[in-house]
Amino acid sequence: MQDTNAGVRRHGEVDADGAENRRVARNRALLLILGILVVGAAIFVPFRFTDHTPPEELTYSAFLETLASEEVAEVTILPGERIRGRWKDVAPRAGGEFVVVYPVARLEGLVERAEDEGVVVRFEAPPNRERFKELLALTLQLLIFGGIGYFVFLNMKGQTSGEVGGKAKSTTTFADVAGTQGAAEELREIVEFLRRPADFAALGARIPKGVLLFGPPGTGKTLLARAVAGEAGVPFFQISGSEVTGFIVGLGAHRIRALFKKARKKGGVIFIDEIDSIGGRRGRNRAHNEDDRTLNQLLVEMDGFSPSEGVVVIGATNRPEDLDPALRRPGRFDRTLIVARPTVAEREAILRLHVERRRIPLAADVDLGRLARLTPGATGADLANLLNEAAIAAVRQRATAVEWRHFEWARDRMLLGKERVGFRAQEQEWRIVAYHEAGHALAGVVACPEDGLHKVTIQPRGQAMGVAHFAPDDDRHLHSKRYLEGQIVKGLGGRAAEETVFGPDHVTGGAESDLVHVNRIARRMIHRLGMGKAAGLLVVDDQAGPLSAEAHAAMDEEVRQLLDRLYARARDIMVTYRPALDALAEALLDRETLEGEEVLDILAAYGVPCARQAA
User: Fold this and answer.
1) Cβ neighbours of residue 380 under 8 Å, at least 6 residues apart?
2) Helix ranges restricted to H, 376-466
3) What's the distance, CA 291 to chain centroid?
4) How many CA atoms lie within 13 A of 443 on its CB side?
5) Confidence class of residue 20 from pLDDT cuts 50, 70 and 90?
6) CA distances to 194, 522, 567 from 560, in Å
7) Mean pLDDT over residues 176-191, rounded?
8) What residues form DSSP beta bridges with 266?
9) Mean pLDDT in residue range 587-604
10) From the candidates 274, 301, 403, 437, which is the catalytic residue?
11) Whether the predicted model's global pTM rises above the 0.70 cut
């Protein structure tokens, strides 16, 4: 089932101190805002309220008259802007002030006249016009550094309040898990230990402190960890490896200590998703050893608690080769479980579980067993998404139940890509695509009959202008040399059809991805599986060191010979069954999409031996 990363948060499952933590954080934010306001007021308020009653404003003519009448005691001149003066201590203006706008820079005549009347003359320096900008810059600096300081404070102090590795009560049980029965059975022992730790301790049994779950994304590792906690009825602490590390030195180790301290109080399951991000080999990042400090703290914590405390650590990763060996030694993560992709039977069980739990109404023509066979390699998350897409398609068409055609549409979208609506191409290009896909179908039916033909289409999907899709009738884990060679012939069928029909000078780049695919198969056969003649059982082993240049050259030459031989076989199939190739291409040009049975009927009508294994 789907590997869910988010914690299950229901009423009554969140820590009781969650509201208190939020209240403390809110109070800190209010204090920070209040402090910024006080600083701003301290800067601006003195400049805003220092002025008293505004002085009397005079015209220049009136000012000259007051000078002549000897009413002015002193003047202060700001060149080019204004004149500020004070009256003599005589009624009715005793001690008062006045101001005169004086935008003229020349002052010689005015100064001489004032001095002749016995007036004291002063000059005022020009104001600092950059003062406001300086104050604004200072305020911005205070805001920036204050915000950074508050952020660092929260990162250092917030982790002790349970923000990482939140505790919840899991309601998931093994009844909610399908397609991972082997791993689920192994984990039932852990459940019994969490339920009755004293019984195990009485007989001297030591249950593993840690369990590592390996598997591709979406196979249900998180769901299994939840099921362990739910079955045992113990708290569930979930964190992701990326949550632990931070840019502050010592923060990752601090978070690990806080998490284990919480878990020891009442016991429970600690689930660390993406454990490879903190449990990778030490020394891999020589420029920054904070990851090593975090891993060391995790190792110390796993050594520091007793099994009688009722704590089990479950780690999940899809890159087990990156883990540090010290993490996997006995006494830490003692047990390793592989959560593989589900088999056909397990995929069917997953589909039925989703249909039952989500109450999806199915039409009578829906066969979940057939759908499971048509989705080889799909994980629980993929199947959940497939069901959801089919249900969306049914709602879009206003159907009362999900029909088989909806599953077909959802499966094609998942495997082949979304239809490219409005795509246009020249008629000659469509003919090339039709023959290309017909060549794949013909070569696959003849050279690799084990894989059932599901569908052939020249309707553009994703990056491809057409697809010939084959689906094995069951999961295969071992592949014979004949089967692998059949896969190469099938992959080269499109290029061989283009060359046979249009000539070697008119082959196109449509076989680019096909060539990459068949080269990988051929190289694996010769370099890894020992299926070559000249190289024999000599294979490439990265751990044993590189082979000689001569050995590599001989292997590459054998890869080329293998591809040439199988391409010649693909061309022979196209020439031998040319009428069937033409008929299938014309049918594709006429109808765009053909189901597997329809293709087999066309090929059989022209004498092509068909095994009748259409998916």
Assistant:
1) 1, 2, 3, 178, 179, 180, 218, 219, 220, 223, 342, 350
2) 380-396, 404-416, 427-447
3) 21
4) 32
5) low
6) 59, 9, 10
7) 80
8) none
9) 90
10) 437
11) no
Which sign, positive or negative, has the C-alpha torsion 413, 417, 420, 423? negative
Dihedral sign for Cα 12, 17, 20, 26, please: negative
Which DSSP symbol is given to 398? Answer: T
Sheet containing strand 56-58, strands side by side:
56-58, 97-101, 82-87, 72-78, 120-123
Residue 442 in contact with residue 493, Cβ under 8 Å? yes
Residue 437: active-site member? yes
Residue closest to 378 by CA, chosen among 405, 408, 340: 340
Calculate mean pLDDT across residues 35-58: 63
CA neighbours within 13 Å on the CB side: how many for 417?
14
Nearest in space to 455 (alpha carbons), one of 592, 585, 590, 596: 596
Encode 316-343: b = buried (16+ Cβ within 10 Å), e = exposed. bbbebeebbeebbeeebbebebebbbbe
In SS3 terms, 88-100 reads as CCCCCCCCCEEEE
Mean pLDDT of 216-243: 84
pLDDT at 128 over 70: no
Tell me the β-bridge partners of 464.
461
Task: Please state, in angstroms and rounded to a whole number, the distance separating the CA atoms of residues 604 and 598.
Answer: 10
Of 371-375, 543-547, 605-609, which range is least confident?
543-547
**Local structure of 131: helix, strand or coil:** helix
Spatial separation of the C-alpha atoms in residues 614 and 441, rounded to whole Å: 11
Q: Is the pLDDT of residue 41 over 70?
A: no
pLDDT at 484: 94
> Which element (helix H / strand E) includes 535?
none
Residue with tokens 């406001």: 132
pLDDT confidence band for 433 (50 / 70 / 90):
very high
Q: Rounded to 5 degrees, what are φ and ψ at 58?
A: -120, 150
How many residues would you count in the chain? 615
Amino acid at residue number 561: Q
CA angle 372, 376, 377 (to 5 degrees): 120
354-410 pLDDT, tens digit per residue, is 999 899 999 999 999 888 888 888 888 899 999 999 999 999 999 999 999 999 888
Q: 57 by DSSP, 3-state: which?
A: strand
Tokens standing for residue 577: 């069954």
CA-to-CA dists, residue 109 to 82, 106, 583, angstroms: 16, 8, 111
